[in-house]
Structures are given as C-alpha cells and as structure tokens.
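Field notebook, page 332. I keep forgetting to write these up properly, so this time I am using the form the group agreed on. The chain and the ligand, coenzyme A, are recorded exactly as supplied. Prediction of the bound pose follows.
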Amino acid sequence: MQYSKIVGLGHHVPERIITNEYLSSIIDTNDAWIIERTGIKERRFIDPTKDTVANMAAKATRMALERAKLTEKDIEFIVFATITPDYFFPGSGVLLQRELGLEGIGALDVRNACSGFIYALSIADQFIKTGMYKTILVIGAEIQSTALDLTTRGRNTAVIFGDGAGAAILQASDKPGILSTHLHSDGRFAEELYVKDPGSSRPHEERQPEQILDTSTFKVVMNGNQVFKHAVVRFMEVIKEALDANELKKEDINLLVPHQANLRISQYIQEKLNLSDKQVYNNIMRYGNTTAASIPIALSEAWAEGRVKENDLVCLAAFGSGFTWASALIRW
Ligand SMILES: CC(C)(COP(=O)(O)OP(=O)(O)OC[C@H]1O[C@@H](n2cnc3c(N)ncnc32)[C@H](O)[C@@H]1OP(=O)(O)O)[C@@H](O)C(=O)NCCC(=O)NCCS
C-alpha cells in the first residue's frame, strides 16, 4: 500500500503589518471589539507593487523544499488552493509553475475557500496513492486585502481577513502518512460568504460595470452569524468523522490545526473536544483569517516550533465559503 507523507512545510506572509489600531483609524471599529469577537490583533496586507499570490507561494515553496532537503526539480505536480488568484484566469497554479521554472508539469487550481488546502491535500494524496506521482507541491495562498471593503460598511469582514501563503510537499511513502481526508459542501449557503463578481452568469453591463469602484458586488460579503453557527457544527462533525473512520478517539489527537477563521470558533472546538492549549495550534492573533493559506501557515509554524513530532496524530479541519468543510488525519 502506497501512502503520502508531508515531508516539508513552508510559509510566507507579507511584511506590512496591519494593526487593529490602524483599522480603527480608517473605519468605525476598535481594538477591544475585534479582539473580543475574533481574537485577531494584527494581520498582513500585501504591497501590490511587489507581492502576488504566486510569488508568495513560491517563497513558501522554497522554504518547504529547503526543510525537506529537496529541490524544485523534484516536484512533479502542483495543486494550488486559492480563491484569490492573481488573474480571473488562468489560475495561480500555472503562475507558480512558471515562477519555479518547472516547465511542463501539471498544475491544478482548487477554489474551495477556507477548506481549499484540505481539498488540495486530499487530491494530492489520491494522486500519490494511485502511483501517478511521487512528489506533489500543495499550496494554500491568498490575497484577501485588495477585495476587502475597507469602509465602515464592510467592517465585519475588513477586520477578519489577511494575506499569506503556505506550502506542503507530499511524497510517496510505505508508511502512513495521511490516514484519511473527508470533504463536504452545501451550496445552499453559497451567498452567506462570497464575492459575487466578476461572475460569468451576469448581464454584460453588470460583469463590466462602468462604475466599478462603486460596485459593492466585487467585495467580500459575509453573514457572520450564519457562518459562525454552521462553522461550529461542521467543524465538530468532520473531526468526529475523521476519528471514527480511523477508529481513533479525540484523546489520540496530539495536535489539532483548525482553519484560522476566528479564535472564538477554535476555542469552542477545543472546549468541546476537551483538548489542552498544547493540543491546539492558533496563530490568528498575528495573521487574521488567510482563507486557504491559514492551515499550511499554521502547520508550518507549528512544525518549526517543534509542536509536531514523529508519530504524532495531527488533525486538520476547516470550514468556509460554499459552505465547504473538510478534515484530514495525519500520522506524522
Ligand atoms: C463577524 C463576527 C465577528 C461578528 O460578530 P457578531 O457577534 O456576530 O456580531 P454581529 O454581526 O451580530 O454584529 C454586532 C454588532 O457589532 C457591529 N460590528 C460589526 N463589525 C464590527 C466591527 N468590525 N467593529 C465594531 N462593530 C462591529 C455590528 O454592526 C453590530 O452592531 P449593532 O448591534 O449596532 O447592529 C462573527 O459573526 C463571526 O466571527 N462570524 C464568523 C465569521 C468567520 O469565521 N468567517 C470566516 C469563515 S471561514
């Protein structure tokens, strides 16, 4: 039986730190409100003159390759999770392939928002299990800042999201590895957290409005209460599903790395699962919610801090726009 193992992790976040104080100076919000509701103290926003989704992903990849003692040439396929590609099309996978100089290898984009990295990991895992590839680069990378409504109208999303990139290198192995992945969606809630434009199923004049700057449909829209309520239920369900599928118990989890949606959501899951602070990794305080990038950035930092050790049981879980939700159990 062929398994896949994460052999290298890397991440990159833009230099520009956006504090709660700064946001409070441009929109009607404040540090205490943001910390109480989300746990976020600061996040990173890109510098549009130098950062792109693909080049942040390339920096994360180089860190992952170095840690895995591999080179670009070892990568056979790219799975790139992002809902904020540099272009509407083509996707960021091909831009990363170009940036890394990996002529001709396949590159696939995954658009599953906050669950995107786990979906991407699952796809890579299947390719390795079937023997099609031996080394796959899995990316989660996002630039949310340029789509945020940075006015008081958009304050419920402006304070939450941030930019960044994370990378994982998956390799074939005789031993597990990724034990299982579990993927779900419920499109009935698609409009509870979404960016409407530039949607294709729109009249010509709406897809290409003259007054594009006044058009709020290009900005992130979120029904925070709905998202919160569904998130806490789905997170719990999908973690239980993963444990049951492997006949494991919550006590067996050494480290849970939840998608960094909101510290209150992470704390709720931690409490329900009765996990200690040592068993849950959070970095939303420093980066906000970086959508598909949040799990690989958190995993990369957790690994660098020595929080993930050989043979540990690591659980990844995510919930986000779609709605989509997913989990993965990994024997490190
Ligand atoms: C967004 C979220 C923090 C809002 O918290 P909430 O307790 O649900 O707050 P509400 O939206 O009910 O708003 C409460 C009040 O705060 C105000 N408010 C919203 N954003 C604010 C901000 N940034 N600063 C100050 N006040 C704000 C609202 O206008 C509202 O005021 P009102 O009572 O006078 O009408 C919360 O719903 C949440 O975390 N949801 C999940 C979001 C998430 O995880 N998204 C990512 C999923 S991947």
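OBSERVATIONS:
- The radius of gyration is 19 Å.
- The chain has eleven helices and 13 strands.
FOLLOW-UP: compare against the apo run.
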